[in-house]
Structure formats: structure tokens, C-alpha cells
Specification:
three-stranded mixed beta sheet, alpha/beta
Length: 168
């Protein structure tokens, strides 16, 4: 799971994390550094690894939490985009919620695929720039890709990711 170092959306990280752990899924948390990451609502987590040290072949998927920090810190991260592209190419689960599906679009994995994103003009434009087919929906699953719209969708997002991991 990937979070912004500062400003990740707490419920978009913690709710799926709890669900994954309850399902017996081992989670590694990544961010820009291994310094404590802080959520927009005050939660915090200590990442296990920095994004630039992740070896995607060691994982079954990549899940990216949203929040205001994602736009500033994760959207432009070329290493994260490469991780997403590599995960997709190796048929791993690729998932993002809120504004973070933009990272998937920038990685080139949403081309010609239905996807959702937080309903703000900039995020929608970025998805369309990546040739995604934008739909205003809670959660969209297309092959091994899971996208979700906002914090209210965190539980449904977690369920969809678990289902995708079981299939792929």
C-alpha cells in the first residue's frame, strides 16, 4: 500500500488496511521515505519501505490511498508510475482511490479502460488525458484494475481489491 508522506486520506488507507489484514493479506506500506507519514485527519503510519526501494515482483499488487498529499507528492512521482506500469504488465492487482487513480492514468494503464476518480475537474481531466473512460461511480473494476471515487467508498474499495487479489 502506498501513502503520501503528508496528507493521505486516513479512511482510504486505514479501512482497506484493516480489511486486508482481516483477510490474512500481508501488507507492506510504502511512501517517499520511511519517516512517519501523516494523514489529513491526523492518523499516522510508519512506512516499511520507500517507493524507490520497492521490488514489485515481490508483491501481488499495489494499492494507492488518496488524499490531498497524493496530488502534490504522488502524482508527479515517476518511480511510482513505473511501479504501477510494471505491476500491470505482470498482471498484478493495481488499485487506487480518490485522486490517486490519476497515477494509474499517468502510468499508462487506464488507456481505453473504464475508471473512476474523485469528482473534481483536474482529476477527471487527468484520467481523460491518460485515455481512460471516466465514469462517476463508487468503484470500478476492469480486469486487474480497481479504482474508487472517494472516502465514502473505502470499504467497497477494500472489498473489490480483496476480490481482485483472489481472482488474479
Amino acid at each position: 500500500m502506498v501513502v503520501a508522506q503528508d496528507g493521505f486520506r486516513d479512511e482510504e488507507f486505514f479501512e482497506p488496511l484493516d480489511m486486508f489484514e482481516d483477510a490474512g493479506i500481508t501488507i507492506t506500506i510504502a511512501s517517499k521515505t520511511t519517516d512517519e507519514a501523516t494523514g489529513a485527519l491526523g492518523g499516522s503510519v510508519k512506512p516499511d519501505v520507500s517507493i524507490d526501494k520497492v521490488i514489485i515482483s515481490e508483491y501481488d499488487g499495489i494499492v494507492i490511498a488518496g488524499g490531498p498529499g497524493s496530488r502534490k507528492q504522488l502524482w508527479p512521482d515517476k518511480k511510482l508510475q513505473k511501479l504501477v506500469a510494471d505491476a500491470f504488465e505482470h498482471e498484478k492487482v493495481v488499485a487506487a482511490i480518490c485522486v490517486s487513480p490519476v497515477i494509474l492514468a499517468r502510468a499508462g494503464v487506464l488507456e481505453g479502460k473504464k475508471a473512476t476518480v474523485f469528482k473534481d475537474p483536474e482529476s477527471i481531466k487527468e484520467l481523460e488525458k491518460g485515455k481512460a473512460i471516466y465514469e462517476n461511480a463508487d468503484v470500478i473494476v476492469t480486469e486487474n484494475i480497481v479504482t474508487a471515487r472517494d472516502p465514502a467508498c473505502a470499504e467497497a474499495f477494500g472489498e473489490a481489491v480483496i476480490e481482485a487479489l483472489e481472482k488474479w
